[in-house]
Amino acid sequence: GELISDGKRGLLRTNDDKWRRWRKTYQDLQSLESKITLCEILEDPQHYVRHIHRFAASVITTITYGLHVDNIDHWIVKENMEAINFFVGANIPGKYLVEGLPWLLKLPRRLQWFRPAAEERRRRDEQLYVRLLNDAKARMRTTLMPDCLSTQVANDQEKIGMSDIEVAYTLASSFGAGFETTSASIETILLTDSPNQTVAMLHFPDAMKKAQAELDRVVGNDRMPEFGDMDNLPYTNALIKETMRWRPVAAFGAAAHAVTIDDEYNGM
User: Fold this and answer.
1) Cα 175 to the center of its chain, rounded Å
2) Which residues of 139-151 are buried (b: 16+ CB within 10 A; e: fewer)?
3) Total Cβ atoms within 10 A of residue 212
4) Which of 35, 82, 211, 225 is most buried by a 10 A CB count?
5) What's the predicted TM-score (pTM) here?
């Protein structure tokens, strides 16, 4: 982060005062998208999960590419989700024999049966990510492009010495990191897709009533909660954080790790 942006790129900063100021610049966007989502849930409660997914996707695409998503079936969301799902499936430890037998990579390419699917996925990913980057650059030449991560990276591209494909992948990582983590956390507070699971507010109705009472007392009935209310909503904040501890969206150590060279510990 220090090398490619002199510490100015929020996604690459440590948790310090500058990072917290950077984070606040997106609070108006998150607040707007949350209001849109609540309206969608009121009008169509049966598909609340889709509305939550749209919220998470739109926040990410607006921050990254300056593009608002008005429907979860938007091509940006669908194609990014295809890429993410393939990536997640491919990273299941032991799924591919070549992980345990790397010498298979020395076989003639026509005998590497595991290669075509991955290479086809890479081709489609690169096509998608470069398309999004080129679209952002095209809009930068007009007055329709708001300030976003794409404009910041594109303006610094020559300075940081990254190719178009490297920048395209860098920007695309935001969707993978922020979409499912955000939507899954919100779903955990409410419900999940599984009919056999009822979580958070259904398990602990007394906690829900206390949070609602705090919201009613601090915010009232004539407006929506805003980020400026956070300091006055200690119980609601604690409830949200406890939900993240109780049902983390990703297990620690879930990603497979391996050493690159032999390691010795206590003589072993």
Assistant:
1) 5
2) bbeeeebeebbbb
3) 12
4) 211
5) 0.71
